[in-house]
From TrEMBL:
Organism: Planococcus shenhongbingii
Record has Disulfide bond as a keyword: no
The protein's name: GNAT family N-acetyltransferase
Keywords attached to this entry: Acyltransferase, Transferase
InterPro entries membership: Acyl_CoA_acyltransferase, GNAT_dom, YpeA/RimI_acetyltransf
Residue ranges occupied by any N-acetyltransferase domain in the UniProt entry: 1-148
PROSITE patterns associated with the record: GNAT
Lineage: Bacteria, Bacillati, Bacillota, Bacilli, Bacillales
CDD domains registered for this protein in UniProt: NAT_SF
Residues of the signal peptide: none
Amino acid sequence: MIVRLDHHLEKAAQAIQKIQQPAYKVEAALMGFEGIPQLHETVEEIQDSQEIFMGFLEGELKGFISYKKEGCTIDIHRLVVAPFYFRQGIGRRLLTYLLEQYKGHDFIVSTGTANEPAKKLYESHGFIEQDCFEVAPGVFCSCFLKRK
């Protein structure tokens, strides 16, 4: 079940951090870069976030997506699945849910260029790579866009 998470509550922020850190460690290994901000984010920083968090709950939090709505654009900030639940369709379900909730909007997202699973997921949902930028020497992120 996909539900809105009240990340301002400490317990919810702790649950987010609990799966976010190991998931971003996997991406950090793919990218060869430990400087991903969410990898080091505190519970308090999660609580202070201005993003909207939607979680996939099945007995426990298994994944979540966060975003900001800016006019007619949905800016996806995070799509995270607990590593134990990789390859079970949770990320796909969260992304599909968000796309259905905001039909008629544009969507933007960025991910590590070396994160092929994430790139393939976005491309399979109609996202097109628009740009690539260097976040640290030799470390790149790709920006994707999906138009209405």
